[in-house]
C-alpha cells in the first residue's frame, strides 16, 4: 500500500472513528513495534545525558504602536523548547521576535505545550489556550514524535490534531502545524529501528497534513531537517541528550515555519499578491493526499488549502497548494567548496512598486 493511500485511509478512519492500528501498517506495524520496544532500550543507552524541564518563553516580544498579536504555541517538548538554555532560544520565541520585526507590533506569546505530549493531549491544551487567549491571531502546533514512540493509533492521533486545528480556526486563529519529524534521521537509533521509525513518522506526517488542511490550517514538513546537520555537527544542532534540538536546531526549525507563519498572517501582502508556484521546483496545486505525500520527503514544504476554478474539491478530493518555501541556496558560480549554505526563506520582497 502506497503512502498516499495510507494517508487517505488513516484520514478517513479518523473522520469516521475507525482504527488503523498503531501506524496504519498492519502486520508490519505489529511486528515492528515489538522490535521497537527491544531496540528502544538499546537506544536509551546510546543517547546522551538527559535533563528535565525547559525555559518558559511565554511573554511579550518586540514592540510597536499597534495592538499586540496574540500567539499560541501548542504541542510536545519541541514546542516547549526542551534543550534550549534561554527563553529567547525556543521556536515560539524565535517566531515571535521575527513576526514583531516584520509587523511592527508586539507579540504576546502564550505557550501551553507539554513535555511528552501526544496528540490526544491537544484537547486539554486547546482548552487552556483559549481560556487564556479567547481570540488568538496565530497558533503554531508541533506534535507527533511521541505518537510514534508511544504507539498511539495514527487515526486517533490525527483526529485529535484535526479537531484542535478546527477549534483554533473557529476562534479566529491562523494555524500552522509542524508535522511529525523524521525519527529515522536520529543516528543513535540502530537499524532496522531507524528504517521503521522513518516509515512510521513519514506516514504519520502525511496523515497529519491531510487532517490539518481539511481543518483549514497549513502544514509544514519538518521531516529530516536536522539530519545532515546532526551528522556533521551533532554537538551544535542537537542538545546534550542527542534527541532534542539545541538552540541552533530550534532556530533551523523556526526558519522552516516562519515563511508559512508570515504568509498566514499576511505580513507581506500575500493575500492580494499570492506567491506564484514554480512548476520547475515541483510546486503547484495538487490533490491533498498527493501534496501530503510529497511534502514529507522535503523539509520546509508547506501544504495549504487551495481552490481550482472556485472549487475546493475535485474528483480526487480536497485541493491543496504545495510550496517549497524553504530551500537550499544554490552555490555561487566559481565559489570554493565549503560548508553547506543556510536555507533560503521563500519570502516576498517589498519594493516601492508593491509586493513581488
Automatic annotation (TrEMBL):
| Region spans: Disordered | 327-356
Q: Which SUPFAM superfamilies match?
A: SGNH hydrolase
Q: Which InterPro entries match?
A: Ester_Hydrolysis_Enzymes, SGNH_hydro, SGNH_hydro_sf
Q: Name one Pfam family in it.
A: Lipase_GDSL_2
Give one GO molecular function term. hydrolase activity
Q: Transmembrane segments in this chain: where?
A: 13-36
Q: Which residues form the SGNH hydrolase-type esterase domain?
A: 73-252
* Gene3D superfamilies on file: SGNH hydrolase
Q: Does the keyword Transmembrane helix apply?
A: yes
For this UniProt record, give its keywords in alphabetical order, as a comma-separated list.
Hydrolase, Membrane, Transmembrane, Transmembrane helix
UniProt protein name: SGNH/GDSL hydrolase family protein
Species of the source: Terrabacter lapilli
